[in-house]
């Protein structure tokens, strides 16, 4: 009888990470019947001291996890490249996630290029609820984590209003504008289809009159969204956002990016001209 061919390692591990994302996105709980731990156990991935730590995660024994962590590389990969942090997510164990962060494991590490989320932090941001992200913050993750792409900006792009709200409540810099273009979380939020996040950020004191280095203003983005969106609740929300910006002194209709770049030159600045534009 011919042996059944084994799936390549890369495919096997990618499938495990898809399971992680499925359970986080669906909100399934260990008490709801279908669980990670019944399918994948610590013994499947780890050996030696890492096996004992993974078993502590399975038991939700944080004292044993802390005690056994001394002198152990907590970011080491086991079978199928599994790490303790990924395993904590696989077990849907926020206590273990929090403890591992407290012990020095950064959830933005242990990247897997083939996975949509790439890192445990990315998986937390893609989760349906905020419990994993909250555990990471409780463990010591800074709400302003990230330099090129701050955590709040990541949440605006890939998460829900509740993720954004959690980060703001924990002290995320609402007006951070990293990078050469200078886009803020509010400016980025207006490019998507979640105006409720834009409205929330504005209500929390986000600067409304943003001008990026390319001359594109937040007002211009909102104006275009209203112009390009057919009558719908989505368009109504962008209109509400526009009206809130007007109340805060923002000009509508706003000047075009070409006009803004000319204003910037008059101020002695050198705007970044987008490709395909002369001025």
From TrEMBL:
PROSITE patterns: ANK_REPEAT (PS50088), PROKAR_LIPOPROTEIN (PS51257)
Alphabetized SMART domains for the sequence: ANK (SM00248)
Keywords on record: ANK repeat, Repeat
Top-level lineage group: Bacteria
One Pfam family here: Ank_2
Keyword rRNA-binding listed: no
ANK repeat start-end pairs: 181-213
The UniProt record lists the keyword Transport: no
PANTHER family: ANKYRIN REPEAT AND PROTEIN KINASE DOMAIN-CONTAINING PROTEIN (PTHR24198), ANKYRIN REPEAT-CONTAINING PROTEIN-RELATED (PTHR24198:SF165)
Record's protein name: Ankyrin repeat domain-containing protein
Natural source organism: Billgrantia desiderata
